[in-house]
Automatic annotation (TrEMBL):
The keyword Zinc-finger does not apply. Residues 53-333 form the Sulfatase N-terminal domain. PANTHER family: ARYLSULFATASE FAMILY MEMBER (PTHR42693), ENDO-4-O-SULFATASE (PTHR42693:SF53). Keywords: Hydrolase, Signal. Belongs to the sulfatase family. Residues 1-19 form the signal peptide. The keyword Transport does not apply. InterPro entries: Alkaline_phosphatase_core_sf (IPR017850), Sulfatase (IPR050738), Sulfatase_N (IPR000917). It holds the Pfam family Sulfatase. This is Sulfatase. It comes from Lacihabitans lacunae.
């Protein structure tokens, strides 16, 4: 998975935020003026103004644009295809971090993860948010919404929160002694009160269930027919792994269909906005954890049954924090000034860039920064000595392509683009023309023809570094247990480790339990 404007501007902004904090509750509640403006906007769109919509936010884990409606071959996603055809599909939505917990932290507050000091994966779990910030569910509750986490029928009940600040899934929030994000678990009802539900669809996340899901499928994806990115080697193990990933997507699509059916059966479909996203890119080489499009670019589909914009495709650049701002706007809530996103259906919405960062992920203490305009991508690697393939312990369990392609590299069987991921270092700067080079193979940073573009995006990145400077430098990381687990497997279960090197996913959770039990004994 840096500097912004000038330091004196930060000082001014800080002093302003202190002044604003004194009237925080008043300035960020729905004012009479905002209510009137909201009503006028709804009337202009022929939307009802007398009844607040229900809102469901579906978060599929570890997903790039790998749905049929985005053009992915060999996968069947009829429910999401229908949602896209009936709603609005966004083709250039980016998360602000390619790893789950920093990405989710940004979305939960609506503020870039570095600004709230939540950029390091699974860190600061017992550190409260700065009092200038609040989770967006706080404002929904104040507006009369019942906030719901999870769903009674999806895999694992979809209750994941995974944010890098002190919190509890359920309970009240004051940010001092109460840290609850949601009101209740799993069920929404047609009781006349507006609700917001955040539902995690975790089947697409790597897990010990992938083989079981594939085995139960009535139409498992044929590995011989899949179309993979050109940076993945054409090997039977890698093709099967890609097919399994698409199997999980099809299972997830069925869960989406189930939720829509429940809305219909409960008489809620006509007044419920459904938002579908991925929380970061796919869990494969160059995907989750990396600042390439396969790690940052996510599906975004919004179906508002009241809207006249349905049936359209938007190509403008969207940040995941814009989704948070949009939800608040849907609820008629004035977006707090600390939110770094903007409502995407506002007539004045215009975003030129998304600023993304990559920092700690388990034992790998990275520091990279990026901006993307949808056409151009700039990446600055502050630790170029750390390779892309950093042999991160957790990924050894869940990246069959890594093991296969390392072997192929040793045998001299990888082509130039396949070999790029296995370079011993990273470039200090990377520049890509995404329209001509969507897979980000050709680094133009040293190309004199693109000197002005490089300087422009370098400056934009430095500006964002300063504007999104952390509110605190507190850093309390969580120890990655996968490091000790992998070492234990190498020593105590060498035959299993040999299977891993062949690209077999030997399992993680059941081995973790054995390891823990072994340590207790």
């Amino acid at each position: 998975m840096k500097t912004k404007i000038f330091i004196f501007l930060m000082a001014i902004a800080f002093s302003q935020s202190i002044a604003q904090n004194n009237s925080h509750e008043t300035s960020l509640a729905v004012s009479e003026k905002h209510t009137k403006e909201f009503s006028k906007k709804r009337e202009a769109e022929n939307l009802p103004t007398n009844k607040k919509p229900n809102i469901i936010w579906l978060m599929a884990e570890d997903m790039s644009l790998d749905l049929a409606c985005y053009g992915m071959p060999s996968v069947k996603t009829p429910n999401l295809d229908k949602m896209a055809a009936s709603g609005v599909r966004f083709d250039n939505c980016f998360v602000t971090n390619p790893i789950c917990s920093p990405s989710r932290s940004a979305m939960m507050v609506g503020t870039h993860q570095t600004k709230i000091n939540a950029q390091n994966h699974r860190s600061n779990k017992d550190i409260p948010l700065d009092q200038n910030y609040k989770p967006f569910t706080y404002w929904l509750r104040k507006e009369g919404y019942t906030t719901i986490l999870g769903h009674h029928a999806v895999q694992s009940k979809g209750r994941k929160t995974d944010v890098n600040f002190k919190h509890q899934p359920i309970g009240e929030w004051d940010g001092v002694s109460k840290f609850g994000l949601f009101d209740k678990y799993d069920t929404f009802e047609n009781d006349g009160k507006p609700f917001f539900a955040q539902i995690q669809l975790n089947v697409t996340h790597r897990g010990d269930w992938w083989n079981e899901i594939r085995a139960k499928s009535t139409h498992p994806v044929d590995p011989n027919k899949v179309v993979m990115p050109p940076y993945l080697a054409n090997d039977p193990v890698i093709r099967l792994d890609w097919a399994k990933y698409l199997d999980q997507i099809e299972f997830m699509d069925a869960e989406v269909g189930m939720i829509f059916k429940e809305l219909e059966e409960k008489g809620l479909a006509e007044n419920t906005i459904v938002i579908f996203i991925g929380d970061n890119g796919r869990c494969n080489i160059k995907g989750k954890g990396y600042l390439y499009d396969s790690g940052l670019k996510i599906p975004l589909i919004i179906l508002d049954p009241r809207s006249k914009a349905n049936g359209t495709v938007r190509k403008d650049v969207i940040s995941s924090t814009d989704i948070t701002a949009t939800i608040l706007d849907y609820a008629g809530i004035k977006v707090p000034e600390y939110v770094t996103g903007s409502p995407i259906f506002s007539p004045n919405f215009k975003r030129e860039y998304v600023y993304a960062t990559r920092d700690l992920w388990d034992e790998i203490q990275e520091q990279s920064r990026a901006v993307t305009s949808g056409k151009w991508k700039y990446i600055r690697n502050d630790k170029p000595e750390i390779p892309l393939d950093a042999h991160q312990a957790y990924l050894e369990f869940y990246r069959p392509a890594l093991h296969i392609m390392r072997r192929l590299k040793e045998e001299g069987k990888l082509n130039e683009v396949e070999s790029q991921f296995f370079s011993s270092t990273k470039a200090k700067e990377e520049l890509y023309d995404l329209e001509k080079d969507p897979n980000e193979f050709i680094n133009l940073a040293s190309n004199k023809k693109h000197k002005k573009q490089l300087a422009k995006l370098r400056k934009e990145t430095l500006k964002n570094d300063l504007e999104m400077k952390a509110s605190s430098d507190v850093f309390v990381p969580v120890t990655a247990t996968s490091v000790e687990l992998l070492a234990w497997i190498k020593k105590e279960k060498p035959e299993l480790y040999k299977e891993m090197l062949k690209g077999v996913e030997i399992g993680y959770h059941w081995l973790s339990k054995q390891f823990d039990q072994n340590n207790k004994d």
